Please model this.
Amino acid sequence: MIGSVLLFVGGVLYFIGAIGVLIEEFKVSIIWGLLGVFRQIANLIFAILYFKTCKRWLWLMLLGILLAIIGGSLGA
Model:
């Protein structure tokens, strides 16, 4: 039960962080935004180049991944 909740909360946090990074990409340029929508590697490149602007969204994504891993481990 707790594992499922942690997995769900982790997924939601990751999703919110990914949307935040996507918004930051569109703020910089429409090209970055479109690349972020269609190519996952563009998100990684953007996160490295513009770390200061998307730092909080990356931490939120990392927290989501961590919670999802813990929830998956507890649920197994």
The chain has a mean pLDDT of 92.
